[in-house]
Fold this protein.
Amino acid sequence: MGEELSLKESFSDTGYFLKWFAVLLVMGSSNIILHRKYGDMKDDFFNINLSRKFINPQRLMFIYTLIIFIIIYSIREWTRLTDYGAGAENIEGTLDFVIYIIISLFTFIFTSAYIRRKFSKGKVSSGGGNEGGILKDTVSKISSTEFGTLAIYMGLLIIILNVMTNIFQYLKNKQTNKQDKVLRAIYFGQISTLFQLLIMGLFILGFGIDILKNPTWSWKTGSPIIRWILVIVFVIYGLVSITNETGKSLFGDN
């Protein structure tokens, strides 16, 4: 008792299996909800027409969900089995697990909503709001707010605050912070975010690359790719600046 279970031992533990199954269930449900919200996606992916392929856009987004789950799971499992030295809180707890999962799931919702919103075939519905009652006007205002827009704002907040600020704070006092499992959970939640954004960028490039060949190309039609390139440049610049300022790398000590 008090020792971290190995991967093989963890899979035989019911609680371990159930919590990760719950995470996968939430991600799968979110994928279905977003599909119903935004509808079918465009059929071109890296200039390959998927309309009559086995891997259609819907299945492709399911694969995207699985890839993100593998990233979330692998990072957490790697950090869970890492020995951070004497005096460190090496045993996984409920609080640090929940913190890590919340950060990771918010990022997943943002990336999925962004991809579907930008590359949906049809118009995005704005929601209901026709229900009666004394709160009719309030419900109407809330319902008319685009879920995709809110998800994008949430994602930008994660990028700007969680990734940059928390990574800087963690690396600035890394030798001390890595002893605390809650601080590690917050930090590696940002690492999960970075990897998810990388996969998101690949899917945006895949769905949007044909836009660059459009003879009527404009900022409006090509902005998803251009803006994403700017985001990547900003993130890379921020990470390089942080590692130079703190003298610590994202994974090693120096």
Notes: Residues 181-208 form the longest helix (28 residues). Residues 7-246 form one domain. Strands lie at 44-45, 48-49.
